[in-house]
Each structure stands twice: as C-alpha cells, then as structure tokens.
Amino acid sequence: MVEQKLKTKNRSPGRPSRTGAFGNVSDLRDSILDHAELAFAEAGFEGANLREIASLAGVNQALIRYYFGSKADLFDECFRRRGGLLAGHRHVNLDRLLEISENPSVEDLVYAYLKPQWDMKYSSPNGAAFVAMQARLHAEPEEHALRLRREIYDASVKRYISALSQVLPQVPKDIISVRMAFLVGAYLFMLNDLGRIGDLTEGHLTSFGKDEMLDQLVRFLAAGLRAPA
Hints:
This protein is mostly helical and 229 residues long. The chain has two domains: 27-68, Arc Repressor Mutant, subunit A (Orthogonal Bundle), CATH 1.10.10.60; 78-226, Tetracycline Repressor, domain 2 (Orthogonal Bundle), CATH 1.10.357. The protein is 74% helix and 0% strand.
C-alpha cells in the first residue's frame, strides 16, 4: 500500500573522446567505479588495492590515478556516486508523500526512507556491493568517514527528522534524531544479513523475503519512533 503511494505520476552523456573498448570517458569511469565498488565491498578499504582494481577493470593503474587520484579518492567517488542516488531517491519519496498528505503516517515515512536502500541492494551485484561498502563506512568512527557520511546523507536525514517531528509532536526533536541513529543501525544490520534469524528462532525461520523483511522492520522502527520519550 505504501509502495503505491510512492509511484508517480541518465545519466548525462559522456564526452565524445573515444577510449578503446569503452564508448567514451563516462563509460570508462563507470567501469572503473563498478569494479572498485566490488573490490572495496569484498576486501574493505585497507584490503583492496589499485593494482587489482585496474586488472579487473582492464585498464592500467596510471589511468585510475589520472581519473581519480589516490585509492582514498577512488573510494570516496564510489561512495558519492551511489550514495548520492540513494539520498536523491529519499528526497523524491518524501516529496511525493508530502504531496499526498501534510501528515503522512510514521510507517509511510519509515518506508519511504528505507525503500531506496532495499531496491539498491537487490538491483544488481554492484547495488549489493554498495550496501556492504556503506555498512563498513558506518562502522568507521574516524573523521574522514564521518565527513563523507555528513556530505552525502545529512540533508535527506534531516528532512525526515523534521517530517517525523511534525507527525510526532509529543516526542522531542532531539529524541527523534537519536532514534534515527537507531533506525540506521538496525536497517544496516538487517540489510547485510547479520540478524541471525535462524539461530534466534531455533530454526523455525531461516530468513525473510526482502519484502517481508522490509515490512517487519518498518513496523518495528515505527513503533520505536512513537515510543514515549
């Protein structure tokens, strides 16, 4: 039902210069980013190396440095590319909800926030790789990781906090902000298949389908957001 509410009513072309087997510079950059994304997801930032990424992408290491700079710069560009899409979809979902109603339900808001991440994970191996990259970055306390997360996600998160504050006036905004941090931790944990469902249910359930998992998580998180302060 909520999904129906979010349905509505490109990439920019690369430069025309040819780059061998790739159609243009944009295609080449995307290919490098795709392979880097998989490498970072599998080995983490420290474990991945430019030589391996270059080999997988079918280019030389110097070309990666030419387009992206250091390994840290390449990681950041990978994260900005798909993280920016994710944040953008969250903005669009919220805009659509607010067009329908000035006071959407808590469940609708939570669903609108989480759905782009679910769609991304199940869209392709690279979508799943980005989810793993994101989980790794969210576990990093160092300043660079925090700065990157702020740059990409803060604007959309703060919009959802404001929207939740409007529909939950009895809960102080600062408390809602803290609970959004709980929400992010919970969904990343479950989306990365770390929930040990089979163990905790003594084998009665081994997993949820993606839609049922999202539904259960929305119900749980909405109840937590509503809880008395």
